[in-house]
Amino acid sequence: MQALHQKVKELLESGKVQVVIGYGEGSGGKSRPVFIRSAADAAKLVWDDRCHQNLAVYINKPEIKKMGKAAIVAHPAAVRTIVQMIAEHQLSSGAIIVLAVENDTLEELTDNSSLEVYAQSHPVLFPPFVVKEIEDIAALSAAERFEFWQNELEKCFKCYACRAACPLCYCERCIVECNQPQWVSVPSHAQGNFEWHMNRAMHLAGRCVSCGSCTIACPAGIPIGLLTIEASRIARTEFGFEPGISCDASSAMSSFRNEDKETFIQ
After folding, report:
1. What is the fold of 128-239?
2. Prediction pTM value
3. Which of 217, 245, 243, 218 is nearest to 229 (CA)?
């Protein structure tokens, strides 16, 4: 923690950045995003096992950009998100300083090379309960999985918190907001909910870095992140796409190789 406070203080005092996106004390014993603009406020930053939210979602917010160059406190999933954003031309190299924190270590990442090295050497690890959820769903038959997700998605009332929490859901106009034609049914019923979440999972296939922010944000308690994690797992095993490790990676859903498997075609 002391190393983080000192580094943030140095960055702000030197003028290298004008704002640091990090975690601070929130209500109810939870952490919350904070935006540190003064070296005197560096001590307000916290880092512990409550810091799960992927703060990369704030990088391209217009109100954050107006503050000037930013640094961001990032766990491995957030570092991978930033790499993926660069690969998708949503962030330019050197536009942000990444303070990669893991346990008691702190690394300052300032260019594509350092980001890639860190991302490739720091895999995103799931908590034991998430591993069990993944295994339990994988053990189900196709019919049982369909029933499981139908039951889970019935809880959705389309608040779109999952979309808002995801740094890679950055479309200025989402498919659910398109009404000419109407791609996704608006009401929160079984068909509309299923259409929305399947579309989102497909859009994140081969892109989701498994940060879990969508699940954390869901007020209905739907483990929605498991859908995008599974979509990216299929993209990895079938087509060799690993998101968030290369700043020059192509998109899994918009590229083709002659050696691609076609086992998904029935």
Report:
1. Fumarate Reductase Iron-sulfur Protein; Chain B, domain 2 (1.10.1060)
2. 0.91
3. 243
Q: Give ranges for CATH 1.10.1060 in the chain.
A: 128-239
pLDDT of the chain along its 266 residues, tens only? 789 999 999 999 999 999 999 999 999 999 999 999 999 999 999 999 999 999 999 999 999 999 999 999 999 999 999 999 999 999 998 999 999 998 778 999 999 999 999 999 999 989 899 999 999 999 999 999 999 999 999 999 999 999 999 999 998 888 777 777 767 777 788 888 988 899 899 899 999 999 999 999 999 999 999 999 998 888 888 888 899 999 998 887 776 777 777 766 65
Phi-psi sector, 74: left (phi>0), alpha (psi -120 to 50), beta: beta
* Residues 56/57/61/64 CA torsion (nearest 10 deg): -40
**Torsion, CA 125, CA 128, CA 131, CA 133, rounded to 10:** -140
Round to whole Å and give the CA distance between 9 and 5. Answer: 6
Task: Name the pairing type of β-strands 96-102 and 70-74.
Answer: parallel
228's CB contacts (< 8 A; 6+ apart) are 200, 201, 204, 205, 208, 210, 214
CA distance 9 to 15: 10
Longest dimension (CA), the chain: 61
